[in-house]
Amino acid sequence: MKFTSIVKILCMGIAICTLTACGNSENAQSVQNTPSSSTGVYVPNQTGKPMSEDIKDELESKHKQEAAAIKTIQEEPKGSHKGQRILIAYFTWGGRSGEVAHMIQDKIGGDLYEIKRDPDYSRDYSTVLKESAQEVDENVHPKLAGTQPDLSQYDVIVLGYPCWWFTAPMTIPSFLEGKDLKGKLIVPYMCSYSSSFEVTLPALAAAAPGARLFTGLTLDKDTDYSVIDPWLDKAGLL
């Protein structure tokens, strides 16, 4: 691997936790822009500082504190969801979240769906950093491309995404909000360079009120994919 590639990978981890799965206001349609926390709309960056400043530790600490108050399901009865209607939805930029989604489909079946922004994020690394940072700073919930699946038709939603700017990508709230998810099981996995799933849990929980949230799986840069089967087994999917 060339030295420049190694440097780029390290920068990815520092900047947005990962871009291996990784707005301009002209490129995104907003559902809510910079709402106050008093409105009841989840605000991923409440520091009052832009992502261009070094706020990693502050944001991660805040999100972990919020996550500690959110109840997740640790284990479902073995095989309880085999044969049910399953959707495996994922958002990816670099490809890893999609790779894992296909692996999971091979194991448990179900329908596969890729979440895409409209317009798509830039394929240029520096540009997508700015686009995604602005979306978090302004709490922009971008428009999604294509026809969205009818989530009411599914019993289980396996949901994959990267960690962007120490929270879930803003495409995830866009995908979940406004859907009737009451009683549905959401089984999330998060691909990250170094952060844990917990930093993305508050955004996920806020976007899916009424859903049953299974304990999320963290796939960081050192995680072996052998952890996927035990996780799916505990979720009642194997």
Q: Overview of this structure, please?
A:
The protein has one domain: Flavodoxin domain (Rossmann fold), CATH 3.40.50.360. 31% of the residues lie in helices and 12% in strands. The protein is built from 7 helices and 6 strands. Strands 1, 2, 3, 4, 5 and 6 form a 6-stranded parallel sheet that branches. The N and C termini lie far apart (37 Å).
Question: Can you summarize this structure?
Answer:
With 238 residues, the protein is α/β, with parallel strands linked by helices.
Features:
238 residues; alpha/beta; Rossmann fold; single chain
CATH class: Alpha Beta
Strand content: 5-15%
What composes the largest sheet?
A: 6 strands, parallel
The number of domains is 1
Overall 3D form: globular
What structural class results from the helix and strand content? alpha/beta
What is the element layout, followed by pairings?
Layout (H helix, E strand, L loop, with lengths): L2 H14 L39 H13 L17 E5 L5 H13 L2 E4 L10 H14 L17 E7 L8 H6 L8 E7 L9 H7 L4 E2 L3 E3 L8 H7 L4
Parallel strand pairs: 1-2, 1-3, 3-4, 4-5, 4-6
